[in-house]
Write a structure and sequence with these properties.
289 residues, N-terminal domain of MutM-like DNA repair proteins, 4-stranded antiparallel beta sheet, 7 helices
Length: 289
Amino acid sequence: MPELPEVETVRRGLAKWAAGRTIETVEVHHPRAIRRHLPGDAHFIAMLTGRTILDVSRRGKYLWLPLDSGDAIIGHLGMSGQLLIEPADKPDGPHLRVRFTFTDGGPQLRFVDQRTFGGLSVSHGGAALPDEIAHIARDPMDPLFDDERFVAALRKKQTEVKRALLDQTLISGVGNIYADEALWRAQLHGARTTDAMTKPAVRRLLGHVRDVLAEAIVAGGTSFDALYVNVNGQSGYFDRSLDAYGREGEPCHRCGAPIRREQFMNRSSYSCPRCQPRPRPSRRMTSRH
C-alpha cells in the first residue's frame, strides 16, 4: 500500500497539473471507486461538474482536493490506485474507474485502480480539512507536527514500537516499509515496548523516520511493481536504497549479518538480528500472559 512518500509524490504532481483547472465532465466507470460517497454516482458527478480545483493537500495517506464550492474531493489510493494525468487521446486502460475532463481541453485526470481497494468521495464543506479524515494524526513532515507531544504519547502507550509507528492516530503516513527502514537506522527491534523507551531514544527514532521519508520523497517513493506510479506513470526508485525491507537473507549494510524476516500483523517485518536484537520479555509483559 502506498505510504507517505508515494502519496506526497502524487500530491505534488496533482498540484502541478490539476490545481487551478475547472472540471467539465465526470465519468464513473466502476461503482466501487466511489463506494465511500454514499449518495451515489449521480450526486458525486453533480457536486463536481463545473467546480474548480483550488489546491491539492494531504493528511497521512489521504489526499484531498479543495474546490471553489467549499467542498473537497477525498482520495485514497488503497493497494493499487493511481491518479494519472493523461492526454485525452490516450486509449483507456482496462482498470479506468473515474475520468475527469477539464474546460481547458487539456490532459485528463484518470483514477485507475486494478484491485479497487482505493476510492474517491466528495466531502461536503471539507475544503479546509474534511471531517472524514480529521481524526488522522499529522505526519512528521508536517510543519505543525508536535514532536514532544508525539514523544509523550508514544511513551504512554503499552505496545510494541512498530505497532505505534503504524498507528495513524498517533503519527500518520508511516507504513510497513518505512517503519522497518527507520527502525533499522535506529537499531531498534520492532517488538521493543514503547513504555520502556527513553525520551532521547524516541526523539532519535523520530529523526530517522523523518530522514527516511524525506529521502524516499526525493526518490519519488518506492515501486516494487507497476501498481505504484506518479501522475505521469513513472515509478519511484527508493527501493534501490532500502536497508531492511524486502532484503531477507541479504547482508546487513551495517554489520553484514543476513537480514531476517519475521511475521508481523499478517505481513512481514525485516530487521538485522545482530544490530536489532529481539528484546527479552519484561516481567510485566510475561505476567500478562
